[in-house]
Structure formats: structure tokens, C-alpha cells
Amino acid sequence: MKRRGELFSLRMHASIGEAHLCGAERIVAKDEIPGMLVAMTERALSHKGGEPTSISIGADRLDSRRIRKIPLLPVRTLEKAGPREAAMEVSRLLRESGISDEAVDRAFEDLTRGAAPSGGNMRGAMLIDVRSGRRLEPDRERGVRVTRMDLTEEARGKLEDRLRQRGIYHPRVMEASVLASKAAAVPGIVAEFCCSDDPDYTTGYVASRTLGYRRITRIKEPGDPFGGRAFFVDDSASIEAVIRELESIPYLVTEVPGV
Ligand code: WAQ
Ligand code: MG
User: Fold this and answer.
1) Ligand 2 center–CA 23 separation, angstroms
2) pLDDT tens-digit profile of 121-135?
3) Comparing C-alpha atoms, which of 193, 179, 229 is closest to residue 96?
């Protein structure tokens, strides 16, 4: 379907009492809003985590001049034998991208033992200085949330087809590759390292404009509940500008090259 005219950001958040249950967000054309409201509501109501006591959905019209159109990073998978071999590959890729040993060590240390000061996983990402390895995000409990990104319908269909052809289709691959493509396009972000917090999902990735989206299998042992994201930030970048870009500027993936 062609996207003409105005685009809206749709965001859904469902909770059980005070606890977060699930969320979703899309960037859609005006005439797609009603169908998407139904799909988001159904997603919240059928979530395996329980029955929501509250579902909120918001729609905001986007200023089309502020939407950045980007290509998806090329997707590659590196099969590793286990966490030790996977960690060596992650370090190698990050060092090759100009990230210091201190910064790489900080990311590993924090991600493997719960990056939030309270000891659990963060809801958002760490920002780590590429050189000093210092953590730069103002709220270390929450971290920085990447939001306002999506694929056009055409790009979504193409990505899904290609991932299925290669036998690596999973909703997480779709979501994470779009998030990583946005982050990689943000000025000041040099690379990203991500590991799921799902105990049963053991594939992680390293991503950057030059590396693309490199999936790395068996990055943690099954059953390990820790996970998180680290964005390595250039030491000359303005942290406020990086956060504003990640959290509030809409990015739309319009092309899917090299998947
Ligand atoms: N912005 C920033 N950080 C986030 C966000 C977000 N929107 N969502 C999650 N995080 C952080 C948070 O610390 C989570 O604990 C952590 O990332 C992991 O989130 O190609 O599933 O949703 O096979 O568990 C990557 C590999 C899967 C996919 C990533 O992440 C593939 C994944 P999860
Ligand atoms: Mg998760």
C-alpha cells in the first residue's frame, strides 16, 4: 500500500494494575488508523502475560518534514558455539568499530549482572562513552527508550519475506532490526550491543552503520534472565541531542537492501 499524505504515530500501552504488560507502536497513514487500533487492542487483550486492567492508545499526527527516511541495516547471522565464543566476537566487532576496551568491558559487566542500580534489567538503554567507558544516561534505572520508528507497509512485507526465506523470521528480529537501524542513523551513535532479557531468547546483536545488523547466536546460556542494550556514543556528541533524537524524532524505514 502506498503511503500518501499525513502520517500518525500510534502508541499502545497496556498494564495490569501498576505493572507494565505490553506496548506497541507504529507509524501509519490516516486511513490505517482504525484497523491498527483494533490490532493493537487485540494484541493487548490476548497477551499471555495476563488480562490488562488498562489499555491506552494514543495517536499523534507527525510533521512530515521531521520524519527521517532510512534504509534497514543489512542483516547477517554469525553462528557461535556458546557465550564465550560469542563474547569474543562481540568484543572484536566493537573494538574494530573504534570502541575502547574500557567501554566494551563496562557494557559486558553491566549487562550480565543487571544494568539498573537496583540490580535488575533496565527498561531502556545505557549510553556509554566510546572512549572513557563512562555511563552517560541521566536516569540509570530507566535508561533511554528508543521510540517512534517503523517500516512502511512495503518495507515490512519485503523484510518479512526475506527473513522467512532465510529461515530466521521472528517478530523480535523485525522489531530489533528496525530499532537498530534507527539508532545507527542517529548522529553521535557509533555502535550498539544488545542482548534480550528473555531467558529463552539467546541471540543478540552488534549493529552500526558500517557493520550492519550482525546477529550473534548463543550469546547467553538458556535460562539467563539478564539482558539490555548499550549505545556507544561519540565523546564529542551532545547527550541531550542524542536522547532527543532516540526518544522523539520519528524514523521510517523505507528500504530493505541486502537482507
Ligand atoms: N529502547 C531502548 N532499550 C530498550 C528498548 C527500547 N525501546 N526495549 C528494550 N530495551 C532494552 C531493555 O534494557 C531490555 O531489557 C533489553 O533492551 C532487551 O530487550 O535478531 O528481544 O525486548 O534475533 O528483550 C535481539 C536479537 C532481541 C533479535 C532483542 O530485546 C534477533 C530483544 P528485549
Ligand atoms: Mg524483553
Assistant:
1) 11
2) 999 999 999 999 999
3) 193
